[in-house]
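Open question from group meeting: does this chain pack into something compact, or does most of it stay loose? Before anyone orders reagents, we agreed to write out a predicted structure and look at it together. Recording both the input and the output here so the notebook holds the full record.
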Amino acid sequence: MKRMRIEHTTGFSYPGEVSASYNEARMLPGTTESQFVLSSGLDIEPATSVNSYVDYFGTRVSAFDVLSPHRELNITARSLVEVRPRPFEHAGISWARLATESARSIEPVEQLVQTPRTAPHAEVVDIARSIADRHEDPSRAAHDIVSAVGDAVEYMHGITGVHSTAGEAWEARKGVCQDITHIALGALRAVGIPARYVSGYLHPRPNADVGATVSGESHAWVEWFAGEWLGFDPTNNIEIGDRHVLVGRGRDYNDVPPLRGVYGGPFKSQLFVRVSITREA
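Structure tokens returned:
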């Protein structure tokens, strides 16, 4: 088990005063079967009241308005989380049973539908189908499909943007964790395996010293359903372990952006982001 302290600062700066802004933040992790939140909180400048709730997909949301003129919106999320290793065991069900079990529950059924962000390139569909055809167990097929995507796409900043699609990232064979996760989701859904987008944080150093603070960033990975939900990180081609802190789940990135909002004013906003992670135990 690892204990990690995460500080995530983000927001918008404007070249002039905006009259008001209306925002949602999805930056605070929740307690699950594999992680326990010891403390968490959100600081907002300019100061304002916050309405907190859990959204349809189970993600903690902080909704707030800033109704006075401001030149910058600054949000800092601070969390202390204990994370346990997640056991990675395939359920061993058949494709027929997967189809039956998926149809019985709203959650996996919703995660079978492609979105504009995950719609797969034809080459990705062919790769996914060729791998699926070699497996009687859809969970093992999912593992190989996601690994194949991670092997095929190079992690690189600056090639794609926040609105890029899985098809665009596949054409480039380059992208960030968001792009690689979208490609993997499209591949899994193309062969009938429900899959969902997961947002959170990853400590970048497997053997980090206790007390050492390192620069980090928001991270994304995939979970698929094959009798039960299993997670895998295709960007790093590793199982989800005690360095991954889960914040939210959804159909794609659009369901779990760390910060989303609108504002009143003629100016173009500039997003800024800083993340630091400290292993405390």
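Observations to bring back to the group:
The mean pLDDT is 96.
DSSP finds six helices and 16 strands in the chain.
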